[in-house]
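From the methods appendix. Each design record in this collection lists the tokenized structure first, followed by the designed amino acid sequence. Records were kept in a plain field format so they could be parsed without special tools. The example shown here is representative of the layout used throughout.

RECORD:
FOLD TOKENS (302 positions):
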């Protein structure tokens, strides 16, 4: 009820432990707190908070328009309702190295288990679009060093994302990933790998956990969890998938209303009131409310 009973520190410890196990962690993207609760109930391993989703939620494109305050606030709302560790997209760190340091501490305070910071030029673009630009290695390294130095909980995961593959090729991406690990990155997010062989090459080149981004309509093929696990990938995210499913269903419903004059044809596809209340733990709120309003000070022991 209300908030998760698992502390942020314990979520971080659990996240680190799972990463150390060598298992592939499945981390779908939540588009709001309720979807995070569904992700937990379905037995996933974590919750991802996508910058693209946060931007879309505000009616904005994913081009670096969201602020640190907006991202931290929404991330806190999502992280608070789930026992799972939450990993957040911190874009380029929202500014220069000092801003990166502040971002780490604010997102740590928001209850996140970790974040990733990328090496794109600020303002950034969606990682699977053309026309991206990346900063030089020295700047990318400064961002990760600032992030690693700023954290107060050593279990808070600092992940480095590199977008250089799309510009300069796989060898450049491997070299950049190695430099970011040397700078203090706990994990690497190589964006827009085009095939399993590229993921395998990255896996062979670095020792820290690697994340695979299985976003639809992007540069990468949608590999299965078995394929990714077999080559030693540690985390797979589905950043925008639930939002796309939800918006697709919403658009279909509105089209049905326009065409039929009623939503009756799609009621069977809706989440029922009973299922929503179950997900919200409505009964626990009722029990709490009843215990307060039936409490009598006169009947209490003295």
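DESIGN:
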């Amino acid at each position: 009820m209300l908030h998760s009973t698992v502390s942020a520190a314990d979520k971080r410890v659990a996240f680190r432990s799972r990463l150390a196990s060598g298992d592939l962690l499945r981390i779908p993207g939540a588009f709001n707190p309720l979807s995070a609760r569904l992700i937990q109930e379905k037995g996933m391993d974590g919750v991802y908070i996508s910058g693209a989703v946060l931007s879309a939620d505000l009616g904005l494109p994913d081009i670096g328009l969201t602020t640190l305050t907006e991202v931290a606030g929404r991330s806190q709302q999502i992280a608070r309702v789930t026992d799972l560790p939450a990993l957040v997209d911190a874009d380029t760190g929202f500014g220069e190295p000092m801003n990166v340091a502040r971002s780490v501490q604010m997102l740590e305070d928001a209850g996140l288990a970790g974040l990733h910071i990328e090496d794109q030029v600020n303002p950034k673009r969606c990682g699977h679009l053309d026309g991206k630009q990346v900063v030089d290695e020295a700047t990318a390294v400064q961002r990760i060093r600032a992030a690693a130095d700023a954290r107060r909980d050593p279990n808070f995961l600092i992940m480095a994302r590199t977008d250089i593959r799309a510009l300069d090729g796989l060898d450049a991406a491997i070299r950049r990933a190695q430099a970011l690990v040397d700078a203090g990155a706990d994990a690497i997010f190589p964006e827009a790998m085009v095939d399993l062989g590229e993921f395998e090459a990255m896996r062979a080149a670095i020792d820290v956990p690697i994340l695979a981004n299985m976003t639809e309509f992007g540069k990468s093929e949608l590999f299965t969890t078995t394929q990714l696990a077999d080559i030693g990938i540690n985390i797979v995210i589905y950043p925008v998938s639930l939002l796309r499913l939800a918006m697709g269903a919403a658009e279909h419903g509105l089209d049905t209303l326009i065409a039929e004059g009623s939503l009756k044809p799609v009621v069977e596809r809706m989440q029922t009131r009973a299922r929503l209340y179950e997900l919200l733990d409505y009964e626990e709120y009722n029990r709490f409310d009843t215990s307060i309003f039936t409490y009598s000070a006169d009947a209490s022991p003295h």
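APPENDIX NOTE: The domain at 8-240 is CATH 3.20.20.60 (TIM Barrel).
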